[in-house]
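re: ur question from the group chat, yeah i did fold both. here u go
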Amino acid sequence: LADRTLVVFTSDNGCSPQARFDELAAHDHHPSGPLRGHKADLFEGGTRVPLVARWPGHIPAGTTSEQIVCQTDLLATVAEAVGFSLPADAGEDSISFLATLRRGEPSPRDHLVSHSVNGSFAIRRGPWKLLLCPDSGGWSEPRPGSKQAAGLPPMQLYNLDDDLGEQNNRVERHPEKVRELTALLEQFVAEGRSTPGPRQPNHGPIDIRANPPK
């Protein structure tokens, strides 16, 4: 059974603070590694998780990939693996990464939409990631509505290639990226999907910024 089964190991979000980070750090264990934040946040520590797959005869052992993958992609990936065509109104945000698993080829996914516990959004394209809020959107500092968040820019822009820890907000230096990523997210909302296909019903206007600037 193991020889003919695709096994995928992943996690639904980053480490929870219930893990008692201070006690772990005392033993030199840092569950988020270099990533900022944790479960419930928009920062990478809240959303970036492992994905390990094993499929003898299909996935070369010991290979790795830098391909952006979202767990919504598992639907399209498994459907392609078994030769099933998804209906046009199914898996509106699912992109197959079967070619990545089998041959290391890139998938069409170059973007990623994230959502935090308080309703804040972030969108990534390539290395650029835009958070449409001034804070973590979750449980790490600066928390939404906190004194630390007061006075911060209403949005955050990071280049994950050279700032994986999300320490240098580049909103003011790259307004063109802010416009590009905001427009992309608004497009997905308007169309009701992020993959090609028929527009899905729009149930009214959605403010993609949980804390829009006045």
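okk and heres the other one u asked abt
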Amino acid sequence: TIANGPLRTVFELGYGDYTVNGKTIYETKTISLDYGQNLSKFSIDIAGVENLSAGLTLHDNLGETTTNMSEGWMSYWEPHDGSELGQGLVVENPKQLMAFDKHISDEKDQSNLFAQLNLENESVVYYAGFGWKKSGQFKTKAEWNTYLSNFAKCVQNPLILKVVNED
């Protein structure tokens, strides 16, 4: 645990080294969630691979997927518990997004929408989470997708402060 305060929770996961196709993989994830936000930040540091996949589970395949390559996000809007639920993933640097892949299975919770991500300096940052219609925050798929689009624009164009010293 790095931080556990009223505004932000941050923790780090370090994985034991593992071998895939003769290559040793080293991986650390730092995950943070800010109060009032729908998306958690995933900072992935990984050595031994050039790219990775991050995805959304499509559960019963009853919803609709949307992808936006230029803005770097994807979503899934589905019926859930007498309401509707939106899942989303936003890539901090859309240049690291190589493709979207959809895997469909007849088995529950085995279908996924993947973002194929290219690593830069052995790292990638993305945001993932959800919004629920019953919360009153998002009433439609269009509202959820607009949220993801706006979120992507914000993380890809961060506020820059310049301190001016007036001696």
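fwiw on the second one: The helical segments are 141-156. The chain has a mean pLDDT of 95. idk if thats what u expected
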